Amino acid sequence: MTEHRVKVAVPAPFFHALDYLPGDLELVPGMRVQVPLGRRQVVGVVTAVERTIDDEIRCRPITAVLDNGAPLPADLLSLCNWAADYYCHPLGEVLAAALPAGLRKLPGKAIRRRKSPKALRSPSSAGEALQRAPTPEQAVVLDALAGQPPGFGVDLIEGVTGSGKTEIYLHRVQAAIEAQGQALVLTPEIGLTPQLVERFRQRFGDGVAVFHSGMTERARTDTWQACSEGRCPVVIGTRSAVFLPLPRLALIVIDEEHDASFKQQDGFRYSARDIAIVRAQRAAVPVILGSATPSLESLHNVARGRYRHHRLNARAGAARMPQPRLLDLRNTKLRDGLSAELIDTASRHLAAGGQVLFFVNRRGYAPALLCHECGWLAPCPHCDARLTLHRARGRLICHHCGSDSRVPLRCGQCSSTDLIPVGQGTERVEDALRALYPDLRVERIDSDRARLAGELDRLLADIHSRDIRILVGTQMLAKGHDFEGLTLVGVIDADQALYSSDFRAVERMGQLLTQVTGRAGRGATSGEVVVQTHQPDHPQLQRWLRDGYAGLSRELLEERRLMGFPPFSHLALLRADALDADAAQDFLQKVAALIPGDRSIDKLGPVPAPMERRANRVRAQLLLRSQNRMGLQRLLAELVPQLGSLPGARRVRWSVDVDPIDLY
DNA sequence: AGCACGCCGACT
DNA sequence: GTCGGCGTGCTC
User: Would you say A411 is a known binding-site residue?
Assistant: First the structure.
């Protein structure tokens, strides 16, 4: 007997959609439905409607259809399906990540009514007045972009900080809008870089929607709805915006494409940049990638002829990119991490009226507290890590698990009271600079400081008004901010990355150093950048100094090729952790045993994670590497759905990370 | 994931 | 004698 069956993806870790009976409901793929699952009711998405004679599995009826309006568009459903396969993640959970919370929950008593669409300020009237004439260099890039054949293609714009990448985006977005299309602009963090949204608002007025995790659930759902109805010509969003429904999608811009925050680091571990490129390919629309420091992946795609490449070298106005110099710390006297020469340089800039930024990539006062008598280092009770001293708060805090305790008066081992902070964080450098320059306003900007709403905005305003003369900040400050009066950037310690075992550490160091270098000399005065180091002869640091990020990245690509690491191979990282000592590694050992001894896939591990114990869980990992992406994906597609039923799987937490960026 | 069932320790 | 710990099994 022939019957209709409906495949429904539910928010649970199943690798296949479940079957339900439609009854007399009219269903099409993409509709949200309420279905019974065990003894609860959940929201699922219809993925297919089939005629079937397979009666073997039990089948319950669909409770209700939840969409009064349009179903999830077919292109998005299909994109989510692709992503679920590529990242080996259950489709129902992928859809849950793609839909705003308001569409994932069962409706309450009140039926949500759609707001009537706002009248949009006409883009052209708002825009024309503020249109800047492109520089000759920008004009070359714009001509090249305008001359591309229609359809999919990726253009990477490698432009130094301040060279006007945003202006290029604005022109291409304008062209997309004029052709009645919608443009999607992805950015790493909206809260930290309000300038990008500002520039778009100046040009396109209320046509610009934003979408990010800081918005209320309600606002996100409304924006989702507006996008799906084609009411947003431009939407600027973070990672999850890659899943917004855009019926007239005409262009995708990915700003700061190298930025790690495009990769989700838990649950469904997707790369918004990579999904965006797949989406553009499927929708046959162009992609613009922009960065001062492109990822090695994108540069490799340029080298292979997959992406087109454009450069913007000139900075706007009179500003020149500073030539950084290294400051050899060996055998110099340091005061809270600051050398006398750096202090002299800073004093000179301050006396001349400039602003100075000290870049310290660590929060807190000091990354460790040491007993001077016996060598004890205050450890985190839950992790294989040292506690960070937050002196102003009088706390020792673990930056890995959040463990928080009072600063002890005595050594935990020998009871000595001679405890000294070692190393320096932002708070310590801030204190030192306050003592050195009591008459100047010194402020620290890091995530501890900017946690309060509006605090970051206030600080940024006081920087622009030159009220703040000296800034101490983490990489939070390295991104996107324009500080006209900033003439000196001092990097306190460039060496951390040079000691790291992570294969991407030097790439990230180069990106960070280049980004902070771009902070100096944005105004008329040429800037100065000083990098303190104990490794002044390190070849990669030297390479960066001589040939900039472009030279360093060429060298790093060559190194990756020789080592067989991405982008010259593909990685998937299986992680596991557990409360008992060996459970995670034993589990991954069983996983490894399931993988055929195929020459095309390297099994690296299982091994203990670089930080073996974290938040009281013992962690292990198994890295898979292959030259052949399809081969790796086929293996994972076969392997991953079995892992949950492996003996011991319930005793461990495990995850799969396709294209991992951090190997810890 | 969420929720049941089920079989062993300390309490009104 | 019960309340409740989390091990394991299942959800169309």
Answer: yes
> In CATH terms, is domain A570-658 a member of 3.30.460.10?
no
Query: Which single residue has its CA nearest the C1' atom of nucleotide C6?
Result: A651
What is the domain class of A325-366+423-560 according to CATH? alpha beta
Q: Is the CB of A20 under 7 A from strand C?
A: yes
Return mean pLDDT, chain A.
Answer: 90
Strand partners, A50: A5
Lowest pLDDT segment from A447-461, A498-512, A557-571: A447-461
CA of A609 vs C1' of C3, distance in Å? 40
Task: Write the pLDDT tens digit of every residue in A373-406.
Answer: 999 999 999 899 999 999 999 999 999 988 899 9
Measured in angstroms, what separates residue A647's CA from nucleotide B5's C1'?
20
Residue A402, helix vs strand vs coil: coil
Q: What nucleotides of chain B have any atom within 7 angstroms of a protein Cβ?
A: 1-4
Alpha helices in A284-420 (DSSP H): 296-303, 340-351
Global pTM? 0.93
Query: Distance (Å) from CA A651 to C1' B2?
Result: 17
Tokens of A539: 């070849």
Please give the C-alpha separations between residue A607 and each of A401, A457, A589, A592, in angstroms, as whole numbers: 21, 44, 9, 11
> Do the annotations mark residue A227 as ligand-binding?
no
Q: So what's the pLDDT on residue A509?
A: 93
Candidate CATH numbers 3.90.190.20, 3.30.750.200, 3.40.1440.60, 3.40.50.740; the one for domain A3-103: 3.40.1440.60
Whether A371 has a binding-site annotation, put simply, is: yes
DSSP secondary structure string, A44-62? EEEEEEEEE----S--EE-
How many CB atoms lie under 10 A from the CB of residue A110? Answer: 6
Strands A355-359 and A470-473: parallel
Tell me the per-residue pLDDT of A94-151, one tens digit each, with 9 for 90 and over.
Answer: 999 999 988 888 865 333 333 334 434 444 444 444 567 888 889 999 999 999 999 9
Give SS3 for A139.
Answer: helix
What's the average model confidence in pLDDT over A176-184? 97
Q: Which residues touch strand B (CB under 7 A)?
A: A 12-13, 38-40
